[in-house]
């Protein structure tokens, strides 16, 4: 098995994710967390956006004055990210590497201060190994922003629409070349991996805790402002965190030596 590469469906990815209310809502909630996280870090930091795709988040970080290295296994995504950086006027603050996250250490002179790893963990064959690699390339005192596809949210969504047989069969993905992630993740498993490696989890946010469950889909667009306000109100408390379609976790690498995770 190999990690997913989006070269073949980059345009579909852009249209169906960032061109929809679900993408807009995801970015809005994510930036609430990121701005709060950046406020706790030094004024100018080195940031790695691992699997950064088209660069929307990376460019936003660069716009805030930070130095960003974006890597992605997809050459098409890298090209799109470079074009966006040029459009936004932040190319001087950004660097691009055609590389998978597992090999990023070969392209870093020293560990970074913040790692962004958004909607990638669910596409890799060995997620725990990738998290260990990210740990090794993060400076002590640095932070991790991890967003992953939530298996609980997938289950809830399929039950809402009555896909009982699909749920009973274990929700196995049948087609590879789709935008549905290969490996939905159980939140408690991800939290355990992080803590086992040595990270201290500082925050958990459910992303799209209501949006995808609305029976009237027109309200996703027509009622977006009210929906965003309600998502913001409830997305950082249970049970809503654990029901989000994605979960955003922030964590820090302690200043003291890391724990042995072998």
Describe this structure in words.
- There is one protein chain.
- This protein has a 7-stranded mixed beta sheet, sandwiched between helices.
- It has helices spanning 10-18, 21-38, 56-63, 75-88, 127-136, 151-160, 164-168, 187-197, 218-222, 224-234; strands at residues 46-50, 67-72, 94-98, 112-118, 138-149, 200-207, 246-252.
- It has one domain (9-253): 3-Layer(aba) Sandwich (Rossmann fold), CATH 3.40.50.150.
- It is of the alpha/beta class and 262 residues long.
- Helix 2 crosses helix 10 and helix 5 (127-136) runs parallel beside helix 8.
- 39% of the residues lie in helices and 19% in strands.
- It is globular.
Topology readout:
Layout: H1 10-18, H2 21-38, E1 46-50, H3 56-63, E2 67-72, H4 75-88, E3 94-98, E4 112-118, H5 127-136, E5 138-149, H6 151-160, H7 164-168, H8 187-197, E6 200-207, H9 218-222, H10 224-234, E7 246-252
Parallel strand pairs: 1-2, 1-4, 2-3, 4-5
Antiparallel strand pairs: 5-7, 6-7
Helix pairs in contact: 2-10, 5-8
